[in-house]
Write a structure and sequence with these properties.
Blueprint: H1 2-33, E1 35-37, E2 44-46, H2 50-57, H3 59-95, H4 101-108, H5 116-126, H6 133-140, H7 155-180, H8 184-192, H9 197-225, H10 229-235, H11 246-255, H12 260-294
Antiparallel strand pairs: 1-2
Helix pairs in contact: 1-12, 3-7, 3-9, 5-10, 7-9, 7-10, 8-9, 9-12, 11-12
Length: 295
């Protein structure tokens, strides 16, 4: 009992900091979401759950959710595929003691060390129609410039490329760490029994790597859902509304349309979606752990 009291005393400052930095703003957001509040006119009147009901019944919300799912799904899938491919390649080089591979895995992680806002400004210059790096490279091959972020046809995919370029190293680092901790005895026994490298990967390594992949996927889905830097700096949700995801929609509603009550309700819906994903992952991991211990 005395040990528990000492432990609580040590974590109490952290809990107080969390209550101040997370709890209080969350309570204020919930309170704000229950009002129709226009910052320009200063009008503030009680709305109860009407903001949430309007959001859930709005066709605009359905459109924004569609864009959000497309952006999150494609970017995270691209990052997972490229991250796994890079992790397998670097692991192979490390196991073979090829020169330079130990340092190469550090170089690959440089993009995740750059602040997302700075990364957004960097890619804004790269997407420039006249002077951007992408169109300069196309010009070397005799191809005309592409309006990367100035066309509704390409804008969302351009942002997905920018997001994947920065966050694929995150997936790579986590998956490489997982691959390097897999038991070598199991894979060696499978190879001795005649299994090909593809069969070892498909039926042994990927199932063992599944819990780590789920954690990496969840972290990236959460980051992708709350991403806003690329949209603010590069496209402002445009052209038109082609890159308007939920988090940017909540931002623009609050600080451009000045409807802070409606915007707070949108932000809370994003928060609830993220918490639901976290709980779903925890349940899946616990189920996987129980199945592993039972086996």
């Amino acid at each position: 009992m005395q040990t528990n009291k000492v432990a609580y005393a040590f974590i109490a400052p952290s809990l107080l900091c969390l209550a101040g930095t997370i709890g209080y703003p969350l309570i204020q957001a919930v309170s704000t979401s229950l009002y129709r509040w226009n910052l320009i006119s200063g009008t503030r009147r009680w709305a109860g759950m009407k903001n949430f009901l309007d959001i859930l019944s709005s066709t605009e919300t359905a459109r924004v959710i569609g864009v959000t799912l497309q952006y999150t799904g494609l970017s995270v899938a691209l990052e997972l595929g490229l991250g796994l491919a890079l992790a397998l390649l670097i692991r192979h080089g490390l196991l073979k003691n090829w020169p330079g591979f130990a340092g190469f895995r550090v170089v690959l992680c440089i993009p995740i060390m750059i602040a997302p806002l700075i990364w957004a400004f960097y890619f804004k210059s790269m997407f420039s129609p006249q002077f951007g790096a992408f169109n300069i490279v196309l010009g070397w091959f005799g191809l005309g410039p592409v309006p990367w972020v100035n066309s509704p046809r390409y804008a969302l995919y351009s942002l997905i490329v920018a997001d994947a370029w920065q966050w694929t190293p995150f997936m790579f680092a986590i998956l490489l760490a997982g691959l390097l901790t897999l038991p070598e005895e199991v894979t060696e026994a499978a190879v001795i029994d005649g299994a090909s490298r593809w069969q070892v990967l498909r039926w042994i390594e990927l199932p063992l790597l599944k819990p780590i992949m789920m954690v990496a996927l969840l972290l990236r889905v959460i980051d992708s859902l709350k991403n806003i830097d690329l949209m603010i700096v590069i496209t402002q949700g445009g052209p038109g509304t082609s890159t308007e995801i939920l988090n940017y929609y909540a931002y623009s509603t609050s600080f451009q349309a000045f409807q802070v009550g409606y915007g707070a309700a949108l932000a809370l819906i994003v928060f609830v979606v993220i918490m639901a994903l976290v709980l779903a992952l925890m349940v899946a991991l616990n189920r996987s752990a129980r199945q592993g211990s039972a086996a």
